[in-house]
Every structure is written in structure tokens, then in C-alpha cells.
Amino acid sequence: MRTRLLSAPVLALALLLAGCSGDEGDTADGRITLRFESLAWQEESVEANKELVKEWNAAHRDVKVEYVQGSWDGVHDQLLTSFEGGEAPDIIHDASDDLADFAYGGYLADLTDLLPGRLKSDIPRRSWETTTFGDGIYGVPFLQEPRVLIANAKWLKEAGVRIPTPERPWSWAEFREITERLSGDGKYGVAWPLKEPVSATLNLSLSSGGQLFHRGADGKVTVRFEAADEVMPRTVHDQVNADDSASPTTLGSGGSDTLPGFFGGRYAMVPLGFSYRQQIVQQAPKGFDWQVLPAPAGADGLAQGVSPQTLSIAEDSPHQREAARFIDFLLRPENMVRLALGDWMLPTGAEALRDPALHTAENDWATGTALAEHLRSAPAQLVRGYPEWKDKVATPAFQEYYSGAIDGDELRERLEEDGNLVLARYQR
Q1: Cβ neighbours of residue 357 under 8 Å, at least 6 residues apart?
Q2: SS3 108
Q3: DSSP label at 296?
Q4: What is the full DSSP assignment across 219-246?
Q5: Predicted structure pTM score
Q6: What pLDDT is recorded for position 11?
Q7: pLDDT given for residue 4 in this prediction
Q8: For residue 240, how many other CB atoms are within 10 A of its CB?
Q9: Which end of the chain has fewer CB atoms < 10 Å from its terminal CB, N or C?
Q10: pLDDT at 25
Q11: C-alpha dist (Å) from residue 27 to 30, 31, 34, 37, 314
Q12: Contact residues for 76 (Cβ-Cβ < 8 A; gap 6+)
């Protein structure tokens, strides 16, 4: 049952579409057509997805898969519209931190009894936690990426700083000291691209034990910005506003926007998702020496929050078991490796993660793979109302804090007081 009622016009449209199209992809001879909406966007990734669909179709004459190209831009609203209009694809590509409202709203199928044991056992429990809501599983987490430091290797070598490794990372305090040491003469030790600051802040704060969201005995979630939550954001704030070791102009930038300055020698390091290595390989000037370093560690080591990419099945799909069969095919270990290489990300599957192609020194695949065991469910994963809290409360608050417009006390007050008012509306 849906947990909310559709408006009369939307309900009428949904009924009309259901009546007109219900199994419109099925043919008179009993063949089934499944619609698979993929959000792959990098050329290699799109090619890998399309090749796998083609291979499935060649081997399964009774169940055809139609590839539908989607986009990460506005995906939540696009999916909501398709769900309420009765036009959702059978197989849905999304991210785990976008699933809570869809799962609780009854739009996604519970996969608990649809997925084969092989797939359930191959993906570790910590990954399944990102797509488990209540007693059900509403997505298969299959690709993930840690946030890492992309560094100008020559710059760090010439400065004589200690190079961190997954076995011996920098602490947050050491990271701050080193970025200050690398700065001067209009150059900065680090450039933080924080146009979308919330996910980066919450996920990296897990290393110091930050959690931010706390669930009480009554099941309700409240926001508490405690000492452990302050470590990462205070480091960034002080680098920008006290040390002059982080560029203030990149705070409103996306990751790709920082690359020209990085290549031009303006920043020694940029914290980015692991998949940005592809853009660096494609865009870096000839001879530019770069390397991947682990993000700083705190009291909880290299722990880091992550929201894996997911595959879900629409609750309204008349062919859920066939859709689950296709997902199982798509995520066989050898296919999961192909998808990971195409997206320059890491697979969640244990067998795929052992593939030698993901442990090479070339493009620092091995450094990223060594961080996989430290990835945890993002703090906001199971919080209903998180998208509104993020957009209306947390994003402007963090942006103002990082720029120095507000202090830590006001940041805490806004996250907690304003934030809890927003979340309360989803927990009545």
C-alpha cells in the first residue's frame, strides 16, 4: 500500500496509463519486455551497460531488455513523476541515499525473496545496510567510491612531506598542518569543491566518529551536532579562514571545476570521488604527475560513509522475477568488474573486488581498492526527509560556515533546531 494518497488528477492519469499500457511491452507470443533505465553517463560506462543488455537479449529470447538512458540530474523528481504516473521502468538505476522515500512510499519492490543467494552472499552486509529499510531490501548496491585526495605528486615530493598510505594515513590535524606547509605565494595546499557540501561533510565525518543523525527508542531521528561531527568541517573552516591553506573561491565549485587550477599548479591537492581519475587521465597536461592518497583518518580510522549506486525494481512492474533475473546477470562478478571499470569505481561484490584489474598500480586502482573495506553506510541513509533537510537547512548552513559567514555555534543551532523541525514532519 502507498503510504500517501495520490491527488485526484494524478490518480486518474495513473489509472488511465495502467489501463492503456499495463503490459504494453509484452507481445502476443508471450515474450516479455523489461525497461531498464540506466544513469550511466561516462562513455565507457554507457558502452559497458549497453553491451551487457545486448548479451542478455542474445541469450534470452523470451525476456527482452530495453535500454533507456536516464540522467542523474533531477533523478529523484523524475522518478517520483514516473511512479505516480504509472510509467516507472521495471529496473531502476539510482543511488542508495535516494531510496528511503521511495521504499517507505511503496514504490519499490521488496527484493528479499527475489534475489538469488549467490548475489546476497557476495555483497557484504555493510553494503546491504545502505538499501535495507525496515524489514525489506529495496535495491542492490553494486558500485561505490571512496572520497580520496588527488595530489600533485611532484609538488608533495619537492616539499618533502610524508606521503600517506591506507596503512598509515594522515590524521585530520596532520592534514591541516601539511596543507599550511604547502601554501603560499598565491598557491594553496588544498582546494575543497563544496558546491554540494552535505554529503562530503557527513561521509568524511565518519572517520572521527561523527554520526549527526540519532535514532531514539521510539524510532524517531533527531539531529545532534556533537564534537565528533565537528572535526572535518572545522578543519575545512580553519584551512579557509585561519590558515589561508585552502582556496576560498572553490567552495562554491563542483569537482570538475577545480581541475584546471589543479593542473595549473594552483592547488596541491583536491578531495574528489575516486571516479574523477578518469577525467584526470583524459584532461591532465602531458607529463603531469598525480597520485591518489587516502582521505585523512580520525578516531575511527579510515571509516567513510558511502551511498552506493543501486538497482531496484518497481513495485508496479508485472515482471519482478524476470527483472531480478536480469539484475543477477548484470551483477555476475565478471560483469560487475566490467561496470566498475567503465565507471572508474569499485564493485561492492567480494569476488569482483578481488579481480586483478582492480589491484593495479596504474591510475592507482590499488589505493582505492584498499579503502573498500572501510566504507560504511552514509549517516543519512535511512533518514526520511533527508532531501528536504539537506536542501533547505544543511546546504546553506555549511556553505555559510565554510566561507566564514557564521561560526560553529550558529552552524550547530541551525542544523539542530531548524533541521529537527524539518525531520519532525516526516516522523509523525
Answers
A1: 337, 341, 365
A2: strand
A3: P
A4: S-EEE---HHHHHHHHHHHHHHHTS--B
A5: 0.88
A6: 41
A7: 39
A8: 24
A9: N
A10: 55
A11: 6, 5, 12, 20, 20
A12: 98, 387
